[in-house]
Amino acid sequence: MKVSVGDVVLPGDYCEEISPKDEKSRVVIGPGLRKEVDHVYITKAGILKKKNPHTYWIDSYQKRYVPIRGENVIGIVTQKAGDIFRVDIGGSTTAALSFLSFEGATKKNRPELQVGDIIYAKLVIASKDMEPELVCVDSFGHKGRLGVLNDGFMFKCPINLVRKILNPKCPLLDSLKNEWPFEMAAGMNGRIWIKANSMRESIALGNAILGAEFLSDSDIKKMCNNIAAILAGHVS
Amino acid sequence: MREVFLSNCEKNFVQKTIAEGYRLDGRNYNECRKLNIAFGSEYGSCIVSIGETKVLSQVSCEVVQPKQIRPNEGLLNINVEISPMAAPQFEANRQTDLTVYLNRLLEKCYKDSKCIDLESLCIVVEEKVWSLRVDLKILNHDGNLIECSSIATLASIAHFKRPDVTRSGESIVIHTLADMDPIPTVLYHYPVCVNFAIFKNNILISDPSYIEETVCTSTSEDGTNTGGLLVVGMNQYKEMCLLDLTGAAIYNSNIVHRAIQSAAERCKMVVDLVKKDIMTDDNLRQKRTKINFADIITTDHAQSLCAKDLCIRLKNFTINDIEMEEETDVSKSIDTDDNTALSKYDVPSLPQTVELKAKKGASTWIDISSESDED
After folding, report:
1. What does the alpha-carbon distance between residue A56 and residue A4 come to, in Å, rounded to a whole number?
2. Which chain A residue is nearest to residue B23, measuring alpha carbons?
3. Which residues belong to any copy of the K Homology domain (chain A) (predicted)?
4. Structural domain that includes position A31
């Protein structure tokens, strides 16, 4: 069935707008779209979105993560094997993290990671044929914001929720950042790590994030005010 | 079964939260999630959901030869299956420890307690008896599978009606449902299994969610295991049918007494609910209304999900407060129209005037009016 940008689409539909205007322009198709012989077909149910000039993708609801190169994910260290760590990122297989992929790590100077720790890492190899690989350091060798996450709490959420709150237009983080100090790491594999000064504040933050899934922008702001009011009423 | 990994920070956080008297989803220690029983179009099929945990149960019957040692009793068979639909770590058609555990507990609770009158299932002594078979399928695993499965077994057995049988001389006629009204199963009493999580040998949590169950049976940092899961099976007359403990040993009997008292109240409430739902269902069927599982999928499910089923929630958070606050805000703005100083609960519509300050302790007033003068 023919659809246009902004419609709710089902797998099997196709869109005529997704085609190069002339020979030199490039069209970028994102998740949920696939190019067959003549048309670009839709392979996931969701909303067809467009970003100027030529980027198209499908916004869909998903809970299982498929590793994609370049994304920042939160993983749990499950095993130490030789000179790599095995990290669970929620995909079909565990990912490998070499112990040299940390800032300042050498063969004699191993990073202090225990089984059960949580790390924030970047995927450098992710394809359907190979086991994914992570690094905790950027291409200059700096740690940046990657590495071990201490204390705090981690919970799982749908992948589209992570994308929603990381969108600069979403008012959730802006509303919450004035209320109480907290730290947050969002992994694109549907895991979010939060840390606040007290346990109630952490729960309030988790509540705000999970509650924002189906709300519009104005409702999100009202919900954040609501949560801050409840928290302030009980914090001594 | 693929392994599930629990991180150290999740473990520590949940244990700290419970030690301070809160639970992740805002409930009290003895509060349970919403219980919902929905019946299908056939007799004996039902879906029971406790929060997000869902179990489907179906009772069926057939005529078989009885056992030689009990020639005048019918047979009862309970079978639990956990499919990969329940959680990603389960594999299809593979018996795991959890499956064996559930099967054994349900057998103990319903077969060994003799709650069903098996002699009423006899047709011809030593030759033909009814064999009842209860098939349970776990649809979603969000903690407390044992309680959900036991309520599903109970509801489906109580709901089930077997075909009527008449004997005339040598021949036996089994009537169809259209011919003669089917006969309900005879239950002497209604046992239900109730699940508790024990933390640090002292704290009793009823209706644990998935993460609370995993944390309390895992080992803590110093390698000791101080938690466990206690299952108490009771009927509505406060008679105990089953007691089962997984995890660490209990040091004092006080916990068991508290659990039994709490279980007695919960069992009474659950059995009353099951009986009431079965009666409602009966009335609807007599009026010939069609009943099927489509009724449990409501059109406002997306909204109801964000209101009460959040897995991390403050105790007093409800979605309805948002509409109430809107009305009070409107009345406030009429009075304080020329008040330029924003209170800390107002979100400025353009956030560029606000900056993140590293605060310790309670929030302070944010002075906006001086910055807006500079604009």
Report:
1. 11
2. A203
3. 152-198
4. 8-59
Q: Which of A122, A111, A23 is nearest to A73 (CA)?
A: A122
Domain boundary among A116, A148, A180: A148
Look at A199 and B354 and tell me if their CB atoms are within 8 Å: no
Q: Which residues in chain A are closer than 8 Å to B302, comparing Cβ atoms?
A: 214
Q: Is residue A217 part of a domain?
A: yes
Tokens encoding B287: 């009026």
Probe site for chain B from A191, A197, A226, A231 (most B CB atoms < 10 A): A226
Q: What is the pLDDT of residues B152-186, one digit of tens each?
A: 999 999 999 999 999 888 888 888 888 888 999 99
Using alpha carbons, select from B167, B163, B165 the residue that is nearest to residue B177: B163
| Nearest in space to B231 (alpha carbons), one of B217, B218, B219 | B217
Range 158-217 of A in CB contact (< 8 A) with B: 171, 174-175, 177-181, 193, 197, 199-200, 202-204, 206-207, 210-211, 213-215
In a domain, A85, yes or no: yes
A141 and A159 share one domain: no
CATH code at position A227? 3.30.1370.10
- How many CB pairs below 8 Å do chains A and B form together? 126
Q: What share of chain A is helix, strand, coil (3-state, %, to 5)?
A: 20, 30, 50
DSSP letter assigned to residue B347? P
**Partners of A136 in the beta sheet?**
none
> Is A1 within a domain?
no
| The token pair that represents B329 in the structure block | 């805000």
Dihedral angle, C-alpha B322, B327, B332, B335, nearest 10 °: 170
Structurally, chain A folds into a number of domains equal to 3
Q: Which residue from A76, A204, A229 is facing B7, i.e. has the nearest CB?
A: A76
pTM of the full structure = 0.82
B22·A200 Cβ contact <8 A:
yes
pLDDT in tens, A193-210: 999 998 888 998 998 998
Residues 6 or more apart whose Cβ sits within 8 Å of residue A24: none
Question: Is A128 in the same domain as A173?
Answer: no
Chain A residues with CB-CB distance to B303 below 8 A: 214
ipTM > 0.85 for the complex: yes
